[in-house]
Amino acid sequence: MFLKTGELKKMMKAALKSGGLYVGNINGGYLVHAGTWGLCTDILYASNKFKAALMELIGDIPESGEYYRYYHQNGEVTQDAETDYPNAYEMWKEAKDYAAYVPINLCSWPHAFIVLQVHSDLSYKVADKSLTADVISSKELETTVEGMPGRPNYNYGILYWKNDTTIYWVHTTEAGEKAREVLFPSMEKLDFFQTDWRLREDNEPDQEADFEEELPY
């Protein structure tokens, strides 16, 4: 898995204390998500470390076909059976746009955000750094069966990272006023899909970075 279990555990714990943590065993994958993020990972390649972290927070992992919402109530973890679960693969397939990382972090204490540029219209989006750059890592990869994901796909305010075993998604968030009105307008002539970041005129040759996009066509 290309996600740090320690950071995931923090995110899952926070979800239990707020809107709830949703966990399912669906179609051969562990589905785990909250309001602003989620993942689906192949059961065969889910690490013992990940499963142990999940069990520490919710108890027994759901059996095949089960899907629950877990939350804290009166100091105890409570679960409710649910039926309407997201289809991570179909969500990713519909995300035909993609995004490039911008070498900027926005800080608004106590939060920090990464900045990305969307390919279709070169608009800028921001996402919580604690859900993205702080979590996505090669440290826990099962390198015999998976590699790191490429650029994230993008659709309707959601970023998707996918490799051979896992799909991870994060909702973007609204940028602050200064970023919207000052910073991003000053960056309108930049194209972070180009090797030199310079926006091309219609008659100029493209110099897009040599990067193999994984698009769900």
Automatic annotation (TrEMBL):
Full protein name: Uncharacterized protein
